[in-house]
Structures are given as structure tokens and as C-alpha cells.
Write a structure and sequence with these properties.
The chain has helices spanning about 5-10, 20-45, 45-70. It is mostly helical. It has one domain (about 5-10, about 20-65). Helix 2 runs antiparallel to helix 3. The model has no long low-confidence stretch (mean pLDDT about 90).
Length: about 80
């Protein structure tokens, strides 16, 4: 599957009622997608790719916030 198709599937996936291990897997998947798209972006400088990376990053941050909790000192 193309990396952009994988990103679209990931974006549309529901993230409610996930276990902690599911959240960890989702966070790692988001990171993998972001880094893969970034490698393509470095070569093409396509603004659409940047938009996709921003959306994935926002979703990844929400997942990680749920993992860590709202305590700003938690790592």
C-alpha cells in the first residue's frame, strides 16, 4: 500500500475505546508514517505532504496525551 493511502486509513481510524497497548502501537505507527512522508517531502517540497504530516502529528499528540495523562511533568 502507498504511504499516503496508509496515512489516510490511519487518519480515518477510530481511536476511541483503545487499550493502552493499542495506543502505544497507534503512536508508533503515526511516527513511522510521519517519518516516511517526511523523507518524500524533503525531495519534493509538496505542500500537500506537509498538510498530511500536520494532521498525523495532531492525532499522534492526542494519543500520547491520553497515554501520559494531563500532568505536564509526566514523561
Amino acid at each position: 500500500m502507498d504511504i499516503l493511502e496508509e496515512a489516510a486509513v490511519f487518519e480515518k481510524a477510530k481511536m476511541s475505546h483503545m487499550s493502552t497497548s493499542d495506543r502505544v502501537v497507534a503512536s508508533r505507527e503515526a511516527k513511522r508514517l510521519i517519518l516516511a512522508i517526511n523523507e518524500i517531502y524533503k525531495k519534493t517540497k509538496d505542500s500537500h505532504l506537509m498538510d498530511v504530516m500536520k494532521r498525523l502529528t495532531a492525532k499522534k499528540k492526542k494519543i500520547e496525551l491520553r497515554l501520559r495523562g494531563r500532568n505536564p511533568l509526566a514523561i
